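hey so i finally got around to running the thing on that chain from the lab meeting. sorry it took forever, my laptop kept dying and i had to restart like 3 times. anyway pasting the input first so we r on the same page abt which one it is
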Amino acid sequence: MDKDFDKLQEFVEIMKEMQKDMDEKMDVLINIQKNSKL
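ok and heres what got predicted. didnt touch it at all, straight out
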């Protein structure tokens, strides 16, 4: 049981990191699009 829980926690941390990474990439893309319209 504990092992499974640890794995789940690990997975959640990885997902959070990926989400953060995606958010940063989206911000960059949005900024590029805004800048190219000017």
